[in-house]
Amino acid sequence: MESADDKIRVVILYSSPREYGSAAKISSFLDELFKELGAETQVFNIYSMRIEPCLGCVSDDVKLCRFPCIINDDAREIFYAIDRSIGLVIVSPIYWFNVPGPLKSLIDRLTSFENEIFISGRSRLEGKVAGFVVVGNDTGSIAVLQNLMITMNSMGMIIPPWAIAYHAGEEDPFKNMSFVMDLANVARTVYLMSEYMIITKGSSATWYNVSEDFKEKVLKLANKINDLYRDKLEIYRRSRIEYINKLYLEESIKKTRIRH
Prior knowledge:
The protein is of the alpha/beta class. It folds into 2 domains: 9-204, Flavodoxin domain (Rossmann fold), CATH 3.40.50.360; 211-260. The chain contains 7 helices and 5 strands, in the order E-H-E-H-E-H-H-E-H-E-H-H. The protein has helices at residues 22-37, 75-84, 101-109, 111-114, 141-154, 177-199, 212-259; strands at residues 9-14, 40-45, 87-93, 129-136, 164-168. It has a 5-stranded parallel β-sheet, with helices on both faces. Strand 4 (129-136), helix 5 (141-154) and strand 5 (164-168) form a beta-alpha-beta unit. The N and C termini lie far apart (81 Å).
């Protein structure tokens, strides 16, 4: 969980074997932007760390997958940093329309955060704020972004407006002013949303409700709607069949008239 104080902490993750490359430069740029805004930051290059692949233990027993993940490797340091923070920005190169392998392994293992919903009743990522940056020499940026966004949102993270930036091409991304401004606004919007979530206590709220009372209420409503549409089904189906048969008949009459 985030620290008890109101300090905005942000983790920046990137995964690249090229410490002189675009992902590294972008991460440094974001680091400085967040510090200027007043946030504390930690930057991790996942590629330089020992990150083992996910064991998939949640598929054996949902109770086995829990924070901070049973695998004791360098991911632990990242996981504790994310747990203490409210913001997370992922900077990813494009590897065949997806993220690099080490980053994918880490994201898979964030299931240990999300799966806490079945253990403590709440994902440990719920109410945290996410931003995303994708950069590469080839196409695939949108595929990477949509993959990251749906995954992190499905784990409980909030994505504020303008929290994405992407650049695809051999041009130096820092020569692309539009991209640079998008980068700056990723930092700004993640910071602003983090600040808002702390002030309103939204980061500690329960967004995904799994309580028995809520389940009972939802099931009752679902059954009501299902029964309503089941009763209507045969009426609508007969009406549609009659309408389509009428169209066939009209078409047949037209063809008969044309022949005569």
